[in-house]
């Protein structure tokens, strides 16, 4: 009886710690993606259509900062459900009996697929005006993963 209790408690503790780690990891990836993807998007935007800073430097910089904050807010709103699914996916992958190397690849592929799916849903709903803009944002999210 006592020999059965210790492995059971160990399994429950290990499962609990794994759940906490998957939450922290998925949250870190999601928040990194939300904060870094707009920067990569803005860099891409400036490379394709550079702003004219000579006319109004302060106005241009404040517009860039405002655009960055708006994109972060929109990414936060639109990707919340994706993050919840990502968290569940990571948890299911970590408790599976797959080898560690394959788990890393499975989590990576799941993140790319979920980011792309979110972009496709937003594209079909007509958010962000053009598909080119949305494609740039989705690519920025995928790069962060």
TrEMBL record:
Transmembrane segments: 27-46, 66-93, 105-128
Keywords assigned by UniProt, alphabetized: Membrane, Transmembrane, Transmembrane helix
Source organism (scientific name): Mucilaginibacter frigoritolerans
Record-given protein name: Uncharacterized protein
């Amino acid at each position: 009886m006592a020999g059965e209790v210790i492995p059971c408690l160990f399994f429950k503790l290990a499962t609990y710690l794994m759940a906490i780690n998957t939450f922290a990891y998925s949250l870190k990836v999601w928040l990194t993606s939300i904060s870094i993807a707009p920067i990569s998007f803005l860099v891409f935007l400036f490379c394709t259509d550079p702003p004219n800073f000579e006319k109004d430097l302060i106005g241009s910089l404040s517009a860039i900062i405002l655009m960055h904050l708006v994109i972060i807010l929109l990414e936060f709103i639109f990707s919340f459900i994706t993050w919840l699914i990502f968290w569940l996916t990571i948890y299911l992958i970590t408790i599976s009996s797959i080898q560690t190397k394959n788990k890393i690849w499975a989590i990576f592929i799941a993140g790319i697929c979920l980011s792309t799916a979110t972009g496709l849903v937003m594209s079909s709903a007509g958010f962000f005006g053009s598909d080119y803009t949305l494609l740039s944002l989705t690519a920025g999210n995928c790069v962060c993963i």
